[in-house]
Amino acid sequence: MLSGVKAGLVSADVLRREQQELRSHERNNKHLEEESRYSETVFRDKSGRKRDLAQERLEQRQKAEAQSERDEQYAKWGKGLAQGRQQQQNVEDAIKEMQKPLARYIDDQDLDRMLREQEREGDPMAEFIKKRKARENKEKKEKPRYNGPAPPLNRFNIWPGHRWDGVDRSNGFEQQRFARIANKKAVQELAYKWSVEDM
What is the pTM of this model? Predict the structure, then answer.
């Protein structure tokens, strides 16, 4: 049977012997029962290795913190970076204005500049000022320059045009010329060192 005793018609001696064996077996296993009562559960992964739950919880917490930081950054971007900067600038301007005295006089440069920069509807001089500012900006405008990796040297030190694609299509004359100049200079230097070696 499941309990370990024989099934069917059994004599008293056999029954007594089986019960004694069961009791001794229980006594032998008593210490295992006591040990297992207060033991912690061991969790294993699919491959059978023990899992460190504290470490896993720590990693999950770190991932959650990183995710929350990323979500916070995306929320900040979603509101608009330029709008955030503008709002910060407005707060700084308001703090600056609060530090000024309440009465503002005619010689206040900040007030004067602010009033001059305002564009009013129907202002006859506004069009003239816009044209003059556009002309000044046009005069200040520089020609576009090449912005990329350093181009190969040439003997005239001419910078490539702003539309250059970075491909060197020369026949190698410039590099050969620079190599000859460097070689000549090295030979002269070596000859000078050899000539003053005895001194």
Answer: 0.29
What proportion of the chain, given as a percentage, has pLDDT over 70?
96
* pLDDT tens-digit map of 45-89: 889 888 888 899 999 999 999 999 999 888 888 878 788 888 999
DSSP code string of the chain: -TTSSPPSS--HHHHHHHHHHHHHHHHHHHHHHHHHHSPPPPPB-TTSPBP-HHHHHHHHHHHHHHHHHHHHHHHHHHH-HHHHHHHHHHHHHHHHHHHS-SS--TT-HHHHHHHHH---TT-TTHHHHHHHHHHHHHHHPPPP---SSPPPP-TT-PPPPTT--S-----SHHHHHHHHHHHHHHHHHHHHHHHTTT-
